[in-house]
Amino acid sequence: MTIPCAGIVPFEASLQKSGLAPFHARGIGTLQVNLGKKCNQSCKHCHVEAGPHRTETMDGETMDRVLSTLADSAIPVVDITGGAPELHPRYRQFAAACRGMGKTVITRCNLTVLLENGCEDLPKFFRARSLVVAASLPYFRKEETDAMRGAGTFEKSVEALKRLNAVGYGVEPEAELNLVYNPGGAFLPPPQAGLEALFREELLKKHGIRFNRLYTIANMPLARFLGYLNRSRNYQKYMQTLAGGFNSCAAENAMCRDMVSVGYDGTLYDCDFNQMLDLAVNHGAPSRIEHWDAQKLARREIVTGDHCYGCTAGAGSSCGGQTSEN
Prior knowledge:
Number of domains: 1
Strand content: 5-15%
Number of helices: 13
CATH class: Alpha Beta
Structural class: alpha/beta
CATH architecture: Alpha-Beta Barrel
Order of helices and strands: HEHEHEHEHHEHEHHHEEHHH
Largest sheet: 8 strands, mixed
Radius of gyration: 19 Å
């Protein structure tokens, strides 16, 4: 959970001042589906607190309910996440079923999972079904990446990226490979366009790697990153940075306004971050997949808290990168 922070304006008050309260959704363009918390990594910034020891996973009944909901809806995009979603025993079946409905499918990948036993053929699986790959990479240098994710992670990530390039990702127009960057500490991401250019130059020059886009995402004051903030005594300062950087344009374009997130147990959330705080959809909209009501969910009032400053500071932050030019 988040910790109250003295000296900052409550997020709801910032929305009020900007004329954005009450904060409502404006449709459902993306259904984000969290298949569970099992992962082959235990990253220091992980807001999911995923890792090899986690056993939480979406069961077959819930997954079938998600698929039937998608089949009956006009939602164009499915965003598959975790943990490492590829470790779910029905991951391939789920992704293929979504593509069979004509949905755009984004699969979130930590890269090193592609080198795990039984996962080596996943680049070809992705390519055969034209999945959009959103691959997290802390930095284009070994030191920063290994510091965040553990020794040897960078070399494994480079190898995974080369395997994706080998089947056309980042090279052919219909094989989209996007990288995702989180800062290594208690600060906001740098401007996305400039960092993308730097990643592109360095990865191509030193490793021959190509990709389409780079998305910058701010670290949320939750879970493992919250633990880091508290241990380093940076929580107050970081929250002040986030609140002081509130950008009404970023808030207006926040991802929760056209997304619904489904937890591994079938609970509905306004976003992946609310999911980790157990802040389910509220204000009269259904909070379970089995009670799905597209009309109510598309115009629901969004559950907010001070952690939402993480998505609305500076140029904004979302699963698709920055949300504002400012």
